[in-house]
Amino acid sequence: MAGNDSSVYKINDRVILVQVFVALFHCINFLLITIFFMKEFFYTTMRYILFAITLLSDSLFLFMTDILLILSYFHFTIQMWLCLIIYIVLSVYTFVTPVTLTAMTLERYVAICMPLRHGELCSTRSALHCILIIHSLSSVPCIVVLSIFFASATHSFYTQGRICSVEIFIFHTWQGHLRSTISQFYFLIMCIAIVFSYVKIMKVAKAASGEEKKSTKKGPRTVVLHAFQLLLCLIQLWCPFIEAAVLQINLMLFINVRNFNYITFILAPRCLSPLIYGLRDEKFFHALKSCALCGLYKKQ
């Protein structure tokens, strides 16, 4: 009995720790989104618009996954129709962030390698079209998985109460393999786009000189950081398979692994976006510093 109480206290400590990280992340995101809408330059520039999309996408994604994490920790059950809605949102926004990162990398490629066409290709109108394309591409894996699910699920399934997780929508082993194949294909295409952009930007950076070299040197570093974020997002797709295998061994080990995966491969990648643009970008950094100091700071 004492051992069970100790385990419960440990779980509660983990839940509280995760909530602290999530709350901190949401506070930072809220500040950055506020700054984005305060400056006309930001919401009329494509790269900052895409940055705002990642902030909004990550905030929604973390909010939903945090709810599921709490429900699974305390073994709360919900109706399957509600779980289905949550799954659709999470499935789409699992891909929105990495696809947007790829779009941001391509925008840097156009800005550095095709500067004369940057204004034409990366206008505000083009950014809106890009957002629609990002969400359309991100919806394809969800549509494929749900089409198979709707063909297999019975009417009574939707009224059942269960602990909500991705695995309950997978009725056959091959469904999981198909979902994994689609995900790996998406990330293969994204990796190719990022590597292509990095190589081209590096060539331009090496050929540049003086002020041009100074303005292009951040390009390769930003692309590398985007690639690292993409790698963490890719690892995130393997987490459900690892957790499903661990669940067959031990429940407490499953909870520990899920907690580790959530912090390392879900929370951490989505904390990198504020770091990349909120701190590394000069214009956004000055706006952030000015806001933090209540307008007392002015750029010299």
Structural notes for this entry:
The chain is mainly alpha-helical and 300 residues long. The chain has helices at 2-38, 46-73, 80-113, 115-121, 124-152, 173-207, 211-216, 218-247, 251-279, 282-292; strands spanning 78-79, 161-162. Residues 296-300 have low confidence and may be disordered. The longest helix has 37 residues, at 2-38. It contains 10 helices and 2 strands; from the N terminus they run ααβαααβααααα. A two-stranded antiparallel sheet has the order 1-2.
Summarize the structure.
The protein contains ten helices and two strands; from the N terminus they run ααβαααβααααα.
In total, how many beta strands?
2
- Main beta-sheet strand count, sense and barrel state: 2 strands, antiparallel
Low-confidence stretches: 296-300
Structural class: mainly alpha
Rg from Cα: 21 Å
Strand order of the largest sheet: 1-2
Beta content comes to: under 5%
Query: Could you state the order of secondary-structure elements as H and E?
Result: HHEHHHEHHHHH
Keywords, separated by commas or semicolons:
300 residues, mainly alpha, globular, disordered C terminus
Secondary-structure map:
Blueprint: H1 2-38, H2 46-73, E1 78-79, H3 80-113, H4 115-121, H5 124-152, E2 161-162, H6 173-207, H7 211-216, H8 218-247, H9 251-279, H10 282-292
Antiparallel strand pairs: 1-2
Helix pairs in contact: 1-2, 1-9, 1-10, 2-3, 2-5, 2-9, 3-4, 3-5, 3-6, 3-8, 5-6, 6-8, 8-9
